[in-house]
Amino acid sequence: MDDDETFELKIRVSRDVYEKLKALAEKKGFTDVSTLLEEMVKQQLLVPESTREAELEKLRQKLERRIQDELNKSLSVIDSLRRQLTELYERVDHIESVVKELSEKKAEVKQPPPIQRGKTYKTGIERLRDDKILFESTLPPRIQRDAFFSYLEREGAVVLKLSRERIAVDKSFWEEFKDKLFKTITTNKEDEIKQVLGEKGYALWRALYDDNLIIYDPKSRSWKPLFKNPE
């Protein structure tokens, strides 16, 4: 078949399509629509395979960039939400700490119950001065423990933090107890210890001993503290 042989092709299009093709032909400098169509067909058929692949590769890269851009936008939104959530948690923690502090202050300034039958009610620190020691396990459930022990400590009491509970000790009684235990007592026999310390001192000694906070040194025949000495 002769390569220079030509054939006539006819197509039917709507007026709207024809007008658009005509306008495009004028824009690109073609004399008529037929010449425009002929050139477009040649471009499509004569473009090398490598050129089409290059065009496809460009299109693929363009799509990848578009997808990556959209993904980055989504990730930035997620990061923003994460930061906002972290800030929210921090604010909640702050509010909880403020509420706790206000609750403690409220417990401190709580008015004593009204006097009935002429009976005088003592404050917590006054009771401790009378009782000498107070074990956390003996407090009634209605007492807010953290606030109560903080109050006693501010009022001058010694608060010992054992593994199972806290013990509040009157300051004067604590100094007397340390002097007897660490300077006077020279034995590890419980009946003799109880005789020197008394009932309440013995109860405090027992709690410290069971919690491994004191130890007896047989060489020096004296008791030694294994805790940081509270002031």
From TrEMBL:
Originating organism: Thermosphaera aggregans
Name the UniProt record assigns to this protein: CopG family transcriptional regulator
Alphabetical UniProt keywords: Coiled coil
Coiled-coil portions: 53-105
